[in-house]
Amino acid sequence: SQTIHQWPATLVQPVGSPLSLECTVEGTSNPNLYWYRQAAGRGLQLLFYSVGIGQISSEVPQNLSASRPQDRQFILSSKKLLLSDSGFYLCAWGVPGVVGGYTFGSGTRLTVV
Amino acid sequence: GENVEQHPSTLSVQEGDSAVIKCTYSDSASNYFPWYKQELGKRPQLIIDIRSNVGEKKDQRIAVTLNKTAKHFSLHITETQPEDSAVYFCAARSPPYGGATNKLIFGTGTLLAVQP
Hints:
A: seven-stranded mixed beta sheet
């Protein structure tokens, strides 16, 4: 069966520090991968998605970047965190070409101080 | 691109009552509409979905209806229980444009509180 792993679960980082969040999927090949952010009390905002290795699409201009160095690995990064980067970051995967929902990882709660 | 609006933002009901959450979408080409439940501090989980060729779908106490003409869909929970308390998100799957992949665009969420 397919599983999605996301880490770390929580992170407290100072303003101006770098960020690296990692997501991996097991049990499937060539998944579509997504990064969402959920600010406190808000909805799910799509940040990036990827349909293959090295293929990244950005949905909103921001202080973050994403990379997909391997088929089932998706990384969210920042060179210098801002206070506004705080939130709950969720990785998700979906099956290309299939009409269906996404499966979300367990999320990373990021607090920038 | 697709835009999804969700109402109400908060909903409080008595245990045993019904709850209804409504969403509208903007892209008439969207063809898939899932609903997710998110408990506090946890990941969203898919609870029910509907495709654009179906008007209604039911799974025990939850049901979803879709009106393609009006571009709105709703979640209905009957005989609510305290464990139904959570944030509920609707979403619409926008088709791929210009070579992009399909994407799920989410509503802003509804905090449902079921009072015992």
